Amino acid sequence: MKISYGWKICILLFFSTTINYLDRHVLSILAPELQHLYNWSEVEYSYIVTAFQISYGLGVVLTGKLLDKFGTKWIFAIGVALWSAAGMAHAFAKGAVGFAMARFSLGLGESVNFPASVKTVAELFPASQRAFATGFFNAGSNIGAIVAPLLIPFIAYKFGWQWAFILTGALGFIWMFFWMITYKTPEKAPELIPTQASQISQETPSPKSWKQVVFKKEVLTICLVRFISDPTWWFLLYWLPKFLNETKAVSTGSLGWPLVTVYVLADIGSLAGGAYSSYLIKKGKSVYAARKQALLVCALIGLLLCGVGFVDNLWMAVVLIGLGAAAHCGWTANIFATITDVFPSDEVGTVMGVATLSAVSGGIVLSLLTGRILALTGSYSSIFLIVGCTYLIGYTLLTRLIPTIKTNQT
User: Fold this and answer.
1) pLDDT digits (tens, 9 = 90+) for 131-171
2) Could you state, in chain order, the average pLDDT of each consecutive group of 10 residues for the chain (410 residues)?
3) Of 167, 182, 197, at which residue does a domain stop?
4) Cα separation, 52 vs 39, whole angstroms
5) Does 69 reside within a domain?
6) Are residues 169 and 267 in the same domain?
7) Judgement on whether residues 80 and 167 belong to the same structural domain of the protein
8) pLDDT score of 212
9) Do 131 and 239 belong to one domain?
10) Is 258 part of a structural domain of the chain?
11) Are residues 112 and 251 in the same domain?
């Protein structure tokens, strides 16, 4: 079966996202060992995590503007090169300050991935396919998270923890080669069917100025929703291995199957969430109605996270976390798709950058709060209560502040 040009590129986006999250997870997998080696406090660890989030938040605004101005090919490649080099640099870090500097550089480079990927999907896919295409490449985040706990402990124990950073960082340079020889702009891609390109173009509203876009009610609402809901994912990314280690006595070498279970469920949620709204659109629902219905389902499933802190059994906790992660990924696929529904492709990078800055800002607040709560109480229960409610709050705000959205399909 011949794969279309759009799906060839989407497969590359899937692998870039996989590598992105693999590189991002190395620290969280090794955190118990490194925290013991360098005697980090919970607060110091939260500062290291926050260093990544600050640079990531600043980076998404910069890369979003660069992507809209100069296009995807070179800006994406430069970002991948930066985050790959920064990932490898962790091997040479000494103490909390050194790791914070490496994390800051990693975040700056990794900030390119999602604005570039969402922009590319907007350029190559019609509205009826965007949520599924977004869910597909976003599933790479969970594949990276699945591979990490299986691969990282093996490398660390076999060759030393430094090599876990070096070898995973090197993967980005391999991806760059395939990206550079495969990607073409839609105008220069002979594989893109002209009628499809015309359909995508007709679905896109006329472009507006930067100020008109950023200060629209829809953009500000999406920023608020992501500020509230995205921190859940940051929390799982950086604190889940520590949660399992500290509350369920799961060693670094035994993290593999619990984390694999969580992220396999998350992968299913990513694909199912995107496919569900695409299915509803094909069945005749309006684009925004389909997105909202899918988001509500995800928000209700996300409430399961509230119970994690009160469960003693390891695998029951793992399943609840996995379902919450699935809800997040389905939620994200539809939020990203909504952005591509509303804005023209030459503005998507900017909108994604501003919205992601808001999301990361929420993540920074939650990371610092988590460090303080754990230092004071030693308990994760209240944190899981907070993150479990965020999606329903986000859904309520979205539907109240924006009851309807003018999209290209009704």
Assistant:
1) 788 888 988 887 888 888 889 989 998 999 999 999 999 99
2) 84 96 90 88 86 89 84 94 96 91 95 91 83 85 84 92 96 96 76 50 50 76 94 88 89 83 90 90 90 96 95 95 95 88 74 86 90 89 95 95 65
3) 182
4) 20
5) yes
6) no
7) yes
8) 62
9) no
10) yes
11) no
pLDDT given at position 117: 92
- Helix or strand run (H / E) with residue 356: helix 345-377
% of the chain exceeding 90 in pLDDT:
48
126 and 217 fall within a common domain:
no
Task: Summarize pLDDT for 33-79 with one digit per residue, the tens.
Answer: 898 889 988 788 888 988 998 999 889 888 888 888 888 999 999 99
Q: CA 153, CA 164: separation in Å to the nearest integer?
A: 8
Same domain, 237 and 155: no
Residue 152 shares a structural domain with residue 231? no
In a domain, 288, yes or no: yes
How far apart CA 11 and CA 16 sit, in angstroms, is 9
| Residue ranges making up the domain that contains 175 | 1-182
Does one domain contain both 133 and 221? no
Q: What is the pLDDT of residue 22?
A: 93
- Domain limit, last residue, from 182, 202, 234: 182
d(CA 241, CA 254): 10
Q: What is the CATH number of the domain that holds 385?
A: 1.20.1250.20
Report yes or no on 198 lying in a domain: no
Nearest to 167 by CA among 255, 106, 90: 90
Q: What is the pTM of this model?
A: 0.74
When divided into structural domains, the chain yields a total of 2
